[in-house]
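Colleagues,

For the teaching module next term, I've prepared a clean inverse folding example: a structure given as tokens, and then the sequence designed for it. I'd like students to try predicting residues themselves before seeing the answer, so please don't circulate the second half yet.
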């Protein structure tokens, strides 16, 4: 089991930026596909972005493509999500997730079996 702890959430105005971090407590972090998911009030949890174990390939949902950037530092066992040009519809609880092996480009929640507690992002209009 992988222990994941998110941080960096907060309240910002429309157009602002935030960088989320996810610290992973696992020896073989570099072997995991990592992803960011979010769940807004009244909605199902949805995939936002994912990154392959080696960091060579990334996947983004259409709703965040061009605004969010996922990255990882395997030497630090840390996953990041840089969020720019934030919109009120980005307001949600953001979860870090891990899945051993290769990523699924469909960003399916069922493909990830390790989850953090989430960090809240609120964007005011």
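(Answer key — instructors only)
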């Amino acid at each position: 089991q992988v222990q994941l702890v998110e941080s960096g959430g907060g309240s910002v105005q429309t157009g602002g930026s935030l960088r989320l971090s996810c610290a992973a407590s696992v020896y073989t972090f570099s072997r995991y596909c990592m992803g960011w998911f979010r769940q807004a009030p009244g909605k199902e949890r949805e995939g936002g972005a994912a990154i392959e174990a080696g960091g060579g390939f990334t996947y983004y949902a259409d709703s965040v493509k061009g605004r969010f950037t996922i990255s990882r530092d395997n030497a630090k066992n840390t996953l990041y999500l840089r969020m720019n040009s934030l919109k009120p519809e980005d307001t949600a609880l953001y979860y870090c997730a891990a899945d051993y092996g290769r990523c699924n480009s469909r960003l399916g929640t069922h493909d990830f079996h390790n989850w953090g507690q989430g960090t809240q992002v609120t964007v005011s209009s």
